[in-house]
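Notes on consecutive records. When two proteins share a document, each keeps its own sequence and its own token line. Never mix them. Below: protein one.
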Amino acid sequence: MSGATDHTGIQPGEVTSFLTDSTLCIGCKACEVACKEWNGISADGYDFTGWSYDNTAALGHSTWRHVKFVEGEITPGIGGNSAQQLSWEFSSDVCKHCEVAGCLEACPTGSLVRTEFGSVFLQPDICNGCSYCVISCPFGVVQKNEDDGRAFKCTFCTDRQKAGMMPACAKACPTESIKFGRLDELKVEAQVRLATLQSRGMTDAQIYDPTHTSVKGIHSMFIIRGEPETYNLPPRPEVPTIYLKDAWKSAAFEAVAMVGAVVASFFFLGRKG
């Protein structure tokens, strides 16, 4: 749905999604700039990270869209879209807006909510800075602003969506690497694009949408080449709360063991007396 028009025709209640195609990204960072301009986010500075030609480094409280520079073995005359070899790729990263969101489950104040578009929205005016969402995000997206005291992340441009407009990053992308639309429609489009890439010899192309994990799928899907780890995407992200059952079992076992030890100690002390 991205392109010249800014009106999506999407109504509140329709589940939306991003589809980021790394094979079309040219690394221009227009999405980063558009995100900052629309949301009034401060600049990240120009510190040299040493990680390729990337000064923003990662997603954070002041970077809600981040174009990653993914370098492979560079062979002269072979570009990132070549079927023979992956040499240089870019990929625009963003909050995944998980179907089962660890950040939302962990938030004690109700700052994080599910919107009518299916995305996960963080309300800064309700955030108390506890950072539970930070440690509960399986993708490392949410970050606390130490100067401000609150956590921040991508809003999925919910304000623009309510006005029938597409998110700023998708609107600004010159190659339509970032597509925006209805979730079910983009899932189909992703399969069509994948088939096209593989027919051109890019057999390592795949769709990143971890529906097989406790995350149950994401609303920011990716088309990548090679392994997810190359793009800093965990191959099997898990929501931390799935470990609660085992944790409570362990705690109960330890409690019973301690009570048993105390009772036994009194019994043996009583016999000695």
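Protein two starts on the next line and is unrelated to protein one.
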Amino acid sequence: MKKYNVFVFILLTTIFIGCGDKNNSKNLFSIDESKFKAMYHNEDVISLIVKNDANKTIDSIVYFNNDKKIGSVKGNAKFDYALTNEKLGYQNLKTIVYYEGSTEETTTRVELLSSIEPKILTYTVLNTYPHDKASFTEGLEFYDGNLYESTGKNGTSYFAKTDYKTGKIVQKVDLEAKYFGEGITFINGKMFQLTWKDSTGFIYDANTLKLEKTFKFDKKIEGWGMTNDKQYIYQSDGTEKIWKMNPENQKMIDFVNVYTNTSKIKSVNELEWIDGKIYANIWQKDAIIIINPLTGAVEALVDLSGLRKKTNAGSEDTLNGIAYNPKTKTIFVTGKNWDKMFEIKVNN
């Protein structure tokens, strides 16, 4: 219980579990929810059956999950649905009931959570460096031995190559005042940058920082954090989703939902790829979560609340910014308007 209590205390997440959309009471049929569990995991099987209070003659029922057909039954036989390979998050269940020459749809949903209880990890501070308190940090990443930082707010957004040991800016690129800058990532000799609510991204030459292309998001989402695995870009949008983008055409090709074994994690923010996992900030939480990029399951948590006490950060100056230095195999973290940056090692 100690681990669970610490985790809940730090993230203060809300559990969104169970059935969401109830069936329309005017329908002849409904999915029987009386034996539904409060939460489901991948090893579970849901037994589905349709309530037929009007005693109609049912010929067959076709079952769907998230608009994908998952099976069918003759008459009103029970249908057992294994959740083994399903994506974490809401399972939007639908039936098409064929009866007496007519059809009727009925829907409900359940929520699929991770089966993994996150580990609580500690950390060691190796070094402390100055950080520009005026920087409203959105993204942080090492490239070719240099630390780059992007910042937000309309009218003051920029990204810059910095000397992390002194906190000084080496090269700076300002955004137009209409843009609120967000996360950055380097891949294939390019630097990608997001904006918050403009559905707009930028691609720069990684070495000269010269703008090469402006692109529009292909989903109606906000831009928050970015990282990459040297093949694909991973992008957060302020919800529990992490999107997978093809950097060649900027198209979203997949996503995962971020979940623990008890709740979904909303407001996923800055991202960093470290040893095959995604390390993520959560907006307004002084912690980093470690996510399996294939499933969205949170595997571990690093409580960084002690770092705030070492800065002059105010209550609104949230932890944000994660950069992995592959040369030293250490992690650099800071926050919005923090006067310090910390080089840390996570203790596994």
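For the record: The chain has a mean pLDDT of 92.
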